[in-house]
Amino acid sequence: MDVLGPAPLLVASDVDGTLVDDDERISLRTHVALNAVQASGGHFVLATGRPPRAVDPIAAQLDFAPLAVCANGAVLYDTATSQVVSASLMSPELLDTVAELIRRYLPGAGFAAERVARGEHDSATPRFAASTGYQHAWLEPDTVAAADAEVLAHPAVKLLVRQPGMTSDEMSARIVPHLDGVADVTYATNNGLIEFHVPGVTKATGIRAAMEHLGLAADVRTAAFGDMPNDSEMLRWAGVGVAMANAHPVALDAANLVTATNLDDGVARVLERWF
């Protein structure tokens, strides 16, 4: 193999802006490349900011059921069984603490909490609770509207904060100096939406949990694909970190290789050189 080195045993990919096109479809070329990973004895893992319920339509396009690292590393989800394997939860106390910082440094922002249950399709558990001031960045049909106190009252895998009129870069720059390790913040869009997690939770930690679940040694060869700041830790951690040509500068800086855009089969173009 060329400068990429030997083929990885585990390949992880972000979804939006990386694996799928603007219609959330996996191209035929990428589909074939992912099948080649599996046929070689390798493992493919989805690694996304999406919650489990939003991963199912992506996994359904594949010929196999991958593990999915969801909510930026906070959730490990088995798409074969629709079961949450593990989750790192923000306590109500932590949610309250972060909310107070948001009110102070991002006044007027709206909150939303992403929650999970062991069985992801257990309809008795509200998945997405949003305050009345929260303006959705995308269609979220499962939303339960609630007062701030209710949004913050139950454990969540992430707290989403929306501030239209600001970029996510601007929001992050304003709040990060005041977090003092209380929580970590990242984002998958620059449209005024940032997401908070338990400290230390990233897509990289989620992939390590997936590897353990798969019985893989910690030192196996790995590759990861991504395009946004929430991919940066994963790109740095992987043996080969690949950023898309359409990536945010933070992701580009974290990668050691740049491929074509998500609309030009960027993931497949690299995988075809290995498999």
Automatic annotation (TrEMBL):
Keywords: Hydrolase
PANTHER family (alphabetical): HAD SUPERFAMILY HYDROLASE-LIKE, TYPE 3, PHOSPHOSERINE PHOSPHATASE
Domain of life according to the entry: Bacteria
MF terms (GO), sorted A to Z: magnesium ion binding; phosphatase activity
UniProt protein name: HAD family hydrolase
Keyword Hydrolase: yes
Any one of the GO CC terms: cytosol
